[in-house]
Automatic annotation (TrEMBL):
The keyword Transmembrane applies. It comes from Paenibacillus hunanensis. Pfam families: CbiQ. InterPro entries: ABC/ECF_trnsptr_transmembrane. The keyword Transmembrane helix applies. The chain crosses the membrane at residues 21-38, 44-61, 68-89, 114-137, 247-266. It is a multi-pass membrane protein. Keywords: Membrane, Transmembrane, Transmembrane helix. This is Energy-coupling factor transport system permease protein. It is found in: Membrane.
């Protein structure tokens, strides 16, 4: 685990130079737009923009690869579940039926169902990259300051910042405990069978949880001794004013949101129907 996952790394890119407030606003509007619309044209355009933004950020793949694989597994299970529980939902949605092949019982694969699930896949492809990017390019302290700026209590904002900063500490603790376990003959490498390896990993989780609880207790005690939470307001060391790049990013997401909503609801429905 030489490369820390889902941790902020400061790089000199246009994405990293944006303030936490503009990144937060961009992500919230982006996610809401993607969740509302089902227009394939807009989702494809947003996917291309997301890929371009991710490329500009120059975030190493190793920093988010494990989480991405977990999301892909969940995505695959979600697609299977959609078809198993609603194999003809696309037919109901688009009002037409074009069969591809009859599988078994009442399960028939249709073009309408494929198109609907393709749109669901696009939603994942649109939201996930920007969501991961938001975590990877936003300094936790600056993110906390941004939350407080938009009205979130500074206590909650500071808790979020601590949680984000704690991610690399958890990874380091897991690595140390893992090395200690391996020194005692507990193998969690790929040389061991999957079932045995899973059992060995679970045996590592208990000391990891205990270590985390102990660390949380120390942090909470230190904060209490320093009088954290007594004042109604606080200042932020990492807070930054909006700059030209931030206004461009905000204007960009506003244009994308308005354009997608106008295009989507131009015909009175949020579902783009290619079968009319």
């Amino acid at each position: 685990m030489s490369v820390k996952m889902l941790t902020y790394t400061n790089q000199n890119t246009p994405i990293h130079r944006l303030t936490g407030a503009s990144k937060l606003l961009f992500f919230v509007l982006w996610a809401l737009t993607a969740m509302i619309i089902y227009d394939t044209r807009c989702l494809l355009a947003m996917f291309v923009i997301a890929v371009v933004i991710f490329a500009v950020s120059r975030v190493p793949f190793k920093q988010y690869s494990f989480v991405l694989y977990l999301i892909l597994i969940f995505f695959g299970l979600n697609q299977i579940a959609i078809f198993l529980f609603s194999p003809l939902y696309g037919v109901e949605l688009y009002g037409t039926r074009h069969d591809i092949v009859h599988l078994f019982a009442w399960y028939t694969l249709t073009w309408e169902q494929l198109f609907y699930q393709f749109n669901v896949a696009l939603k994942y492809a649109v939201v996930v990259p920007i969501g991961l990017l938001f975590l990877l390019v936003t300094d936790p302290s600056e993110f906390a300051a941004s939350l407080n700026r938009i009205g979130v209590s500074y206590k909650v904002a500071y808790s979020v910042a601590i949680a984000l900063r704690y991610i690399p500490d958890i990874q380091q603790d897991f690595q140390n405990i893992s090395f200690s376990a391996q020194a005692r003959g507990i193998d969690i490498s790929r040389k061991e069978k999957f079932g045995k390896r899973l059992k060995n990993v679970v045996s590592i989780l208990l000391p990891l949880i205990l270590t985390s609880v102990e660390r949380i207790e120390k942090i909470s005690t230190a904060m209490e001794l320093r009088g954290f939470g007594r004042g109604k307001k606080r200042t932020w060391y990492r807070a930054r004013p909006l700059r030209k790049g931030d206004y461009i990013a905000i204007a960009m997401i506003l244009i994308i949101t308005v354009a997608c909503l106008v295009i989507t609801f131009a015909d009175g429905s949020r579902f783009y129907n290619i079968f009319k």
